[in-house]
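Posted in: Protein Modeling Q&A

I'm a second-year student putting together a small comparison for a lab meeting, and my supervisor asked me to include a predicted structure for Aquaporin PIP2 3a. I've never done this before, so apologies if this is the wrong subforum. The sequence is pasted below exactly as I got it from our records. If anyone can share the C-alpha cell output, I'd also love a short note on what stands out.
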Amino acid sequence: MAKDIEYGTDQYAPNKDYQDPPPAPLIDAEELGKWSFYRAIVAEFIATLLFLYITVLTVIGYKSQSDTKHNGDECGGVGILGIAWAFGGMIFVLVYCTAGISGGHINPAVTFGLFLARKISLARAVMYMIAQCLGAICGCGLVKAFQKSYYVNYGGGANELATGYSTGTGLAAEIIGTFVLVYTVFSATDPKRNARDSHVPVLAPLPIGFAVFMVHLATIPITGTGINPARSFGAAVIYGKEKAWDDQWIFWVGPFIGAAIAALYHQYILRAGAVKALGSFRSNA
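Accepted answer (user: helix_wrangler)
Welcome! Here is the predicted structure, written out as C-alpha cells:
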C-alpha cells in the first residue's frame, strides 16, 4: 500500500529533500565574536530608523494637509489608505534589503516570536530589540529635528487609544494584529514550505508587507496601529507628552502576546511540533 510522504518526516526517505534545522542555542557564545552578529545589529538599527522616519513623516504630513483650521483640505493628504501603504511598503522594502543580513525583523515582537520558536539565540534577540528601540528613537528624532512645529502640533505619530474604545478593545486589536503579522512571517520564511513548494516561488517580504498594510487598515482607527513596540516606544520618547505614555503598556503587552500565540500556533499546530514530541516520547518509552 502506498504511503503518504511528508518532507522531513518519512522514515523510508533517508535522502529527503528537507530536514528541520537544529534549534538555535539559548546562549551562543560563538556568535558574540563574529562580525556578522554586530553587522546584523547595525542593520536592524538603521532599518528601524528609516522605517520610523518615513512613516511618521507620512502621518504628520497627512494630518497637516487635512487640518482645516490651517487652510487644509479635509479630504487632502494621503488618507488612512496612504498611511497604511507607507507602513506596509516600508516594511516590504526594508525586509527585502536586510533579510540576508539580520533576517529583517525591524520589530521586537517579530524578534520575540522567532526567539520563542528557537530561531535565534537569547543574546541576538536582546541586542536586536535594543537596536530596534534605539533606531526608532533616532528616526522620530530626525523627524522632530526637521519639522519641529509640525511634529509637536500633530502628535508626533505617537500611538494612543482612540476615544470611544475600551482598553480591552485596544489590547485585543494589538494582539490580533501582531498575530497576523508574525504568523505571516513564520509562513513566508518557513524553509520546509520552500522545499516542498519550490515550484511556487514566494518573495517573503511581499506577504509580510501586505500583512502590515492590512492590519493598519483595520486598526488605525482604534490604536493608530502599534503591532511594533519599538515604533510605539520611539514615538512616545521623542513626543514626550503624557498622553503618549498613558496606554504605552498596550503597545508592548499586546504585540508580545500576539507574537507568542503566532509562534506556538505555527510551530506546534501547523508544523505538528506537539505531535512529533509526543510520538518521540512514546517511542522512547
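A couple of things worth pointing out for your meeting: The CA atoms of residues 195 and 224 lie 38 Å apart. The chain has one domain: 29-269.
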